[in-house]
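tool_call: predict_structure(chain=1)
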Amino acid sequence: MQKGILLPVFYLGPLEYYSKIKHHSDNIVLEACEHYPKQTYRNRASIHSANGKLNLTVPVKSGANVHTKMKDVRISYDANWQRLHWRSIQTSYRSSSFFEYYEDDFAPFFHKHTEFLFDFNIELMELCLKLLNLNPNILYTTEYIKDIQDLEDYRQAINPNTQPDTYNLKPYFQVFEEKNSFIPNLSIVDLLFNQGPQSKQFL
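tool_result:
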């Protein structure tokens, strides 16, 4: 495998994630064969609501556990989580400068049913990279290798339960910043809706 950076596949990943993609000049290798870990950004995104940080979680079908490969995890539609997520995004960002600019790009993802979480995340990631004007060379793993060579391994490093220690995001205007103060490292949609075409320079 060629040299590059190894990343998991996240649901509307945080800015730290997209910053690593932007600043890595080699290949971006996405992990498709890892066993699905719970309580991570793989099915969770954090946005800035009127009441502060709000986590949006994509439910997965029962049976998805530490022995299920990430690419085989199925999304559960038993509850109408899509309506909840989209309504939360609309409520949080309707007054942001660029929400209407991108609204039609994101809305379809919250109305169609995608079977697998991996596919859903990849499609959203491709959209975000396009809006950020980033065009990395993306590869996918074909097997799980615990101690991988020639790649910077960030599969466990970007985690909602820990603060990144080497990450320095430039502060930018957030809709509810006056009320809640600036909240760093939220979902990429927070940056896009607030900064639009200038988002790339903040990564």
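agent: Strands lie at 4-7, 27-30, 44-49, 52-57, 138-140, 151-153. Proceeding to next step.
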